[in-house]
Design brief:
26% strand
Length: 333
C-alpha cells in the first residue's frame, strides 16, 4: 500500500464525474482525472489545472500507470456493468482503495464477492458510495434505536430527473425485477404494493423498487428483512423522452438547486417496537458528488476499513456529518 494522499477520478468528463472533480478541486484535494474520450478529458484537465490520463477501461497497463502513487480511485464511469470489474481488479492489483457511484445491484454483489481479495490487497472496496452514503447512514441510525431490529423499510424521494448515464444504467436495475431481502435472502417481492412514508416535510406514497439497500444496508446492519420504495419528483420541465439519445446530459445547476432529495426509514425491533427517521438532502446530482468525495476524503486521511464495505459498515452514522446541507431528523408522529 502506498502512502501518498492522491486521488484518481475515472470517468471525470461525464456529467456526474465533472461535478465530482469540481468538488475535489473545491476541497483542495490532490487529484488527477482519467477517462475514455481524449478531447473531453484534456479540456477538463485544462479547466481544473490537474494531470490527466486517457485510456479504455480494459487497458491494464494504463490502469497501472494511472494508479501509480494513488491512494484511492473514484470510478464515475457508468454503466458500471461495463467498468466496475476492470476498475476493481486494477485497484486490487495496485493496492488502491476503490469507490464508485453505482446504483446497480450486480455491482454491489461483485464488490461483496471480492471481500477476501480486498483484504489480501489491504484496501477498502465500496461500490455505491454516492447517493447511498446518507441512505446507509440512516439505516445504521434507525437500526440502533430498537432491540434486535428485524425489518427495515426505506422510502427514497429523488428530485431532479436523470442524467443520460443514469437512464442507461437503470435498465440494468429494472431487468432484475422487484427484489427484497426476506429472512436474510434476496428474493423477488411476492407482494408489490405501495407504502406511505413520512418524510421530513410530508407523507408520500412510494412504489416498491430495489435500490441497493438490500445489499448495502444488510452489510451495515444485518437486518434480515429489507424492503425499499421510490418516489420521483421532477423539475418543472418534467420528464423528456426516456431514450439516451434524446436526454440532455443531466439537470442544470439551477434545476438541481430547485428541489431536494428525501429519505425515510422505518425499523421494527424483535418486540414490535417501531422507530422512524428521515434525511433531508440536496438533490441527487448534487448529493452524489458531495457524498463520494466525503468518503474519498476519509480514506485520504487514513480513515478506512479493509475489505468489502458499505458506506455504513465503514463509517456508520458519522459520515452523514461530512456531507454539506444534509440533515437527519427523527420522526415522532
Amino acid at each position: 500500500m502506498n502512502n501518498k494522499n492522491k486521488l484518481l477520478i475515472y470517468g471525470a468528463a461525464g456529467y456526474t464525474g465533472k461535478i465530482i472533480a469540481e468538488r475535489a478541486k473545491e476541497l483542495g484535494l490532490d487529484f488527477e482525472i482519467a477517462g475514455r474520450e481524449a478531447a473531453k478529458i484534456q479540456y477538463l484537465a485544462s479547466e481544473l489545472k490537474v494531470p490527466y490520463h486517457v485510456f479504455q477501461v480494459e487497458d491494464e497497463t494504463a490502469w497501472r500507470k494511472a494508479l501509480a502513487g494513488k491512494k484511492v480511485l473514484i470510478n464515475a464511469a457508468g454503466p458500471f456493468k461495463f467498468t466496475a470489474e476492470q476498475a476493481m481488479n486494477a485497484c486490487l492489483q495496485s493496492g488502491v482503495h476503490y469507490l464508485d457511484i453505482s446504483a446497480e445491484l450486480e455491482t454491489y454483489q461483485l464488490a461483496e464477492a471480492l471481500d477476501l481479495k480486498a483484504k489480501e490487497a489491504n484496501i477498502q472496496l465500496i461500490s455505491g458510495a454516492g447517493l447511498f452514503v446518507s441512505y446507509d447512514a440512516l439505516a445504521v441510525y434507525v437500526a440502533g434505536k430498537v432491540k434486535n431490529p428485524q425489518k427495515l423499510s426505506v422510502g427514497f424521494r429523488h428530485f431532479g430527473g436523470f442524467s443520460r448515464g443514469s437512464v442507461i444504467s437503470s435498465k440494468n436495475i429494472a431487468d432484475l425485477g422487484i427484489l427484497i431481502r426476506k429472512n436474510d435472502e434476496i428474493i423477488t417481492n411476492p407482494n408489490v404494493t405501495p407504502k406511505v412514508f413520512r418524510f421530513a416535510d410530508r407523507e408520500e406514497e412510494c412504489l416498491p423498487t430495489p435500490l441497493g439497500g438490500i445489499i448495502l444496508c444488510y452489510t451495515s446492519t444485518k437486518i434480515p428483512n429489507i424492503e425499499e420504495y421510490f418516489s420521483l419528483k421532477l423539475p418543472a420541465a418534467g420528464l423528456p423522452d426516456l431514450t439516451a439519445e434524446n436526454l440532455p446530459e443531466g439537470p442544470s445547476a439551477e434545476e438541481r438547486a430547485a428541489g431536494r432529495n428525501a429519505l425515510s426509514a422505518e425499523v421494527v425491533g424483535e418486540n414490535g417496537e417501531i422507530f422512524r427517521a428521515a434525511v433531508d438532502a440536496p438533490s441527487g446530482y448534487t448529493l452524489t458528488p458531495l457524498s463520494v468525495v466525503a468518503v474519498a476524503n476519509r480514506i485520504l486521511t487514513n480513515d478506512f476499513k479493509i475489505g468489502y464495505q458499505s458506506p455504513g459498515s465503514a463509517y456508520g452514522l458519522s459520515i452523514i456529518h461530512d456531507i454539506p446541507d444534509t440533515h437527519l431528523i427523527d420522526i415522532t408522529k
